Amino acid sequence: MKRKSIVFLLIVLLFSFCFAGCEDGKGKSQMSVSVQTDQIVLYCMATEGKETLIDAMASLQESGELQYAVLSGMVTELNGKANTANSYWMLYTSDAELSNTAWGTIEYEGKTLGSAIVGAEALTVEKGESYVWVYQTF
Question: How confident is the model at residue 48 (pLDDT cuts 50, 70, 90)?
Answer without folding.
Answer: confident
